[in-house]
Amino acid sequence: MALTVVQRPPRSPWPFVKLKLRLIAGGLRGRPSRITLFVLGVVMAGIFAVTGYAVFAVPGVVGDDRAAGMLFQLGGSALVLGWVVLPLLFFGVDESLDPARFALLPLPRRTLIVGLFAAALAGLPALSTLAATAGMVSTAADLGGTGAAVAQLGGIVGGLLICVAVSRAVTSAFATGLRSRRSRDLAVVLFAVLAALLGPLQLALLAGAERADWDAFAVLADVLGWTPLAAPWSLGLDVADGRLWAVPVKLLIVAGTLVGLLWWWSATLERAMLGAASTGSKAGHKDVGSPTGLLLGRRLPRTRFGALVAREARYWWRETRRRAALITFTVAGLFLPLSISISGGSAGPVAAFVGLIAVIALANQFGYEGNAYAANITAGVPGRVEIHSRVVAHALFVLPLLLVIAVVSGLVAGRSEHIPGNLGLMIATYGVGLGLVLPVSVRAAFALPESTSPFAMSSGGGMAKGLLTVGVMLGTLIASVPLQILAFVLGDVWLWIGLPVGAAYGCAAYLIGSGVAGDWLDRRMPEVLAAVSPGR
Amino acid sequence: MTVPAPREGDQAAAMSLRGLVKQFDTKLAVSQVSLEVPAGSFYGLLGPNGAGKTTTLSMAVGLLRPDAGQAFLLGYDVWADPAAAKSRLGVLPDGVRLFDRLTGPELLAYHGLLRGMDAATVDQRSRELLDVLELGTGNRTLVVDYSAGMRKKIGLACALLHAPRLLVLDEPFEAVDPVSAARIREILQRYVAGGGTVVFSSHVMEVVERLCSHVAIISDGVLRVHGTLAAVRGDRSLEDVFVQVVGGRVSTGSELAWL
User: Fold this and answer.
1) Strand partners, A382
2) Residue B90 φ/ψ, nearest 5 degrees
3) A interface mutation test: which of B22, B25, B113 has the most A CBs within 10 A?
4) ipTM of this model?
5) A101-110, pLDDT tens digit by residue?
6) Cβ A295–B114 below 8 Å, yes or no?
């Protein structure tokens, strides 16, 4: 079979389509789990197709052409965006036709592009998208008769082609990019930001929908109709509305977009086929400063403690899991008090909560760098020094953030006199949280998976130890209750003494907790190392 | 068949292990290992994969708590007086990550300051080590992006930085290219000539045979032979001794006759 393909220089895309179908069939052979997954995929695709069809067909049934216009253009744009984003999120799911695998075959690039494009069309996602958008044809027929239906049919085919082309082009462009550690790290952080923003975005959307101005949406939809995102989806409606002149213009937009996307794809394909991008050695040979200067910057003391703090601070910034944790904390810490402030609630309990979530990232602080901790053991770093340095590095990031959060949420709520008191509460809970989480981090350290993705879960014992974090959160809340009550009872006096009292309370709790943790660490260094070493 | 190590009465042992035992779950990883490493020796710890070399060395340098036994480094008990023992020790562990989100110069500065050295000395020695090991004094690449060989070299540089009296190196030549390996050998030989002691593990005979004054062979967690290279080797090659001690199959010439 393969021989015939090789002997005849393949001009037609069929060998690629056949290869793809064969790969799907081959993947189904034998493995029950794969078959289950496949069936699940078919069911999901079927559900998507049926729901999509129903949704897009409704405006035709009820005869509402304004709703049809908005639905088609907004829904169609969402489809295209979905085709862009999903392959990025799940990059690597379908590598069956990874361009790199064709690198050794003597194929003209044009044949390769057309073939891979056809193969991408012959898949469940494309089929279900086509089926879902077929509902648009039904609506177009109801609203504008046969002519509109034919135009819409052409539209959904064009739309599907754009969907597939854009997704292939983007995947291929990222295929080279995502192979280097640096860009993967960046992608991970971007996704962490996106994930952290999901909650706030949802609320913003809901708030927007409440005060919905449908006219604004209609204008947006019409504007989108003239962009590649929604141009194909509105062809039938233009015919139904008698705007025949719009059809050739939009067809031109579609065709131009397709040509542009395919050109972009073929340009990036070559680089993707070369496989792992060699980033080259960035070994600059000009002297950029003394090693200690590079590590410590200008301000940190040239001592063991300075080195420990500097290394830890670098890690909060350079290690993706830690950076993701910081980003999530920043977003959540800003968003929670803000939303409460805007809705007019009391910021006190929320302030306590912000101080609390800041320490969660430290619950498994020894797990982040794995057994690299061995270096500190062989250098004989005492437990308390180790603990203090880690907290100082964390506080370098967290304390300024707490200040910003307190100021911003106080100003937004229009109660700037509460800022010092709330900051005091945050520092108090941060200190109490540290006091509890530091001993836990020594006693219940666990190995994280080698992968640096924040979405990779550690298997086994990690979960049980993760439960301890929940215990720490509860304990911190309970331990900060006295201060909350004090703040409530004292009323206006708290505004004056809140900051010093809160800071003192937090410091005391921190000193106790860090002392316990340091002493435990002195006795348990090898055990902590063993706990965070993977695969023992 | 233990070959007794020649006594060198006036020299204190640089490393002295007494009855080290380590059990992992059901497997006895190290069983009653006792070893004397004379000061100024170049000591090779040989053994097949999984023999217990890394476990033994980890216990010796204070990274893994032994179930029983004692370890002395330069006369100090590692587990009773860790600070004194560790201050004179340089370690290159195997299969252990470095703080690899730092650049090479940053990592060296970190190790130097961690050892309590003053900044000027750290800077001067770091530059020299980076230069000698050809890692680039201005290299801004993070260690995580280094090749395996470069990682070994920066790890070795970290172990050498504070001029320890005893170096414990786990598989220092693994994945290192021949040119760098020659450079490392040269550095280590000079270090021993200057009075330092090196203990290193390997499963490559040639390296051990070329470098070492003393050899110990360990397999299945048991120390089989130890002593000076000449005493262990006798008039045979080290490889023959090794295969015989470890108990590998000896070819009779009759199997796989169809080949």
Assistant:
1) none
2) -115, 135
3) B113
4) 0.87
5) 777 777 777 8
6) no
